[in-house]
Amino acid sequence: MSLFAGFGIDIIFIFVFMVIISGLLMWMASKISRVEKASFTRAFTASIASSFVSALASVIFTIVVARGMYLGFVVGLLLSIIIIKLSFRTNFGKTLLVWIFDIFGAVLAIALTIIITTRAFLR
């Protein structure tokens, strides 16, 4: 397997792990913060949309603007907050709590993917 094929597979694993883990954590956060419209379906849909929009914003701004990586990151985070707010139809404070759990899920997914692929590569 070539290096680029392995990198593409890692991207897919990261996205799948991110959606699953972030969806579960967002659902738990929405229950903890007592969001009125909290459901696993809403959390999972928000997780998919949030992950996709964040990744898309990062790619677009990295290609278009000289310092796009930073700008894409910030725009992706802001769009994630907006998507979560619209998905759960709740106030800003509860949205931020759910968003923090989403970020934690994304970091956890990236760490798990790195651990799994590194172990597979070192064998």
What would you say this structure looks like, in words?
It is built from 4 helices and no strands. The chain is mainly alpha-helical and 123 residues long. The chain is flat and about 45 Å long. The chain starts with a helix and ends with a helix. 33% of the residues are buried. The model has no long low-confidence stretch (mean pLDDT 82).
**What's the rounded overall pLDDT mean?**
82
Q: Please give the largest β-sheet.
A: none
Distance between the termini: 14 Å
How many β-strand runs?
Answer: 0
Broad structural category: mainly alpha
Number of helices: 4
Low-confidence stretches: none
Gyration radius from CA atoms, angstroms: 15 Å
Order of helices and strands: HHHH
Overall morphology: flat
Percent strand: under 5%
**What percent of the residues sit in helical stretches (DSSP H or I)?**
over 70%
Structural key phrases:
123 residues; 4 helices; mainly alpha
What's the short story on this structure?
Helices cover 87% and strands 0% of the residues. By secondary structure, the chain is mainly α.
